[in-house]
Amino acid sequence: MTDKILRRLFASVALAALAGGPAAAQGHHARNVIVFLGDAGGVPTISAGGILAHDRPQSLFIHTMPNVGLSDTSSLDSWVTDSAAGMTAIMTGKKTNNAMVSVVPSAAKGDVTPVKTLLEYAEQRGLSTGVVTNMPIWDATPAACYAHVASRKNKDDIFRQILAPRFGNGVDILIGKGRADAIASFAARQTTAEQAFTAAGYRFSDDPAIMGQAGRAAVLRDADYAPTPAVEATVRQLARNPKGYFLMVEWDMHTDKLDKGLRHVVEMDDMIRRISAVAGKDTLILFTADHSFGLRMGGGKRGTPLAQQIAEEAAEPGVTTASNQVVSVEDGHTGEEVIAAATGPGAERVRGFLPNTRLFEIMMAAFGWKADS
């Protein structure tokens, strides 16, 4: 081969890499994508959770993730989003109105148009998929992965759509609460939840331990469960697919109940730490929140555990004011940006200030996919 031909060959490879062609794609795409969604896990909540757990700032595993950005959370019709619109933006790349789940308003008044979700793209391409949550499986955040409804309150239709997917065979592994809701919803259709899920190919149970035994499983509970073992078992099951997988894990971080919300911060952080160790280098791991919440640290002294100071303050009401309260909570969503932190293939795209819709684009690009036009 002459020097002239070699120069042309090298030039064509370089051009393909710059253009994002096959030469660029080879070896750089993620096989798997996991998005950890802290529901209401805004910057103040993450910060307080770390100090509460470890008595020092920036002490969570999330704080070690090398690629960090700040994501806008506004919805199509409001500066302050709810979980339905917030998760729709992350899962579809489209902003929508509050209360809408993976649909956008149509030109005709009152109509909506379904928008394809990242989980549906994965199903269409033969990847395995999973959704794990400590909320009901019909709630807004998990529903935005696999359902399309004009109102997040329409749980009957959400249950129906779980078992009637538009692409592939639907989500493969489903773990969450809402067992009683499912029983009531399917009873209204003269069947049982177990019969309906079994007919759709799932092993149906309330015990996350079945994850090691079933390729397709629906674990519905009405009680809390140990999160990290359940998520790790889910990852190991999904990873059996040579094509890869997509997994969404939601953990509720609302701090209207302060102790519970901050405990959930630490639980999810432990989850992310463990899964980062076992998922493999071909996995993009993304942490973000759908919206922030009205929590603020207004006081507190170093050298005394934060939990102790909160307890002492609660025992002496009226001693503190809003300006020096250790932790104060206004019960409601807030509109400021939230953290997006990532590691793995494609994580370098998470940086700076970005709209929440770009998180969908980042995950699609990590897989090497383009959204339908």
Topology:
Blueprint (H helix, E strand, L loop, with lengths): L2 H16 L3 H4 L6 E8 L3 H12 L12 E6 L10 H10 L10 E3 L6 E3 L3 H7 L3 E9 L3 H7 L8 H8 L10 E5 L1 H9 L5 H7 L3 E3 L11 E5 L5 H12 L6 E8 L5 H21 L4 E6 L3 E6 L8 H10 L11 E8 L3 E6 L8 E4 L1 H11 L6
Parallel strand pairs: 1-9, 1-10, 2-14, 5-6, 5-9, 6-8, 7-8
Antiparallel strand pairs: 2-13, 3-4, 10-13, 11-12
Helix pairs in contact: 3-11, 4-6, 4-13, 10-11
- CA-based gyration radius: 22 Å
| β-strand number | 14
Total domains, how many? 1
Arrangement of strands in the largest sheet: 7-8-6-5-9-1-10-13-2-14
Low-confidence stretches: 5-26
CATH class: Alpha Beta
Q: What is the H-and-E element order? A: HHEHEHEEHEHHEHHEEHEHEEHEEEH
Q: What's the CATH superfamily, by name?
A: Alkaline Phosphatase, subunit A
Could you give a short account of the major beta sheet? 10 strands, mixed
Q: How much helix is in the residues?
A: 25-40%
**End-to-end C-alpha gap:** 42 Å
State the CATH architecture: 3-Layer(aba) Sandwich
Provide the CATH topology. Alkaline Phosphatase, subunit A
Shape: globular
* Class inferred from helices and paired strands: alpha/beta
- Helical stretch count? 13
Strand content is 15-25%
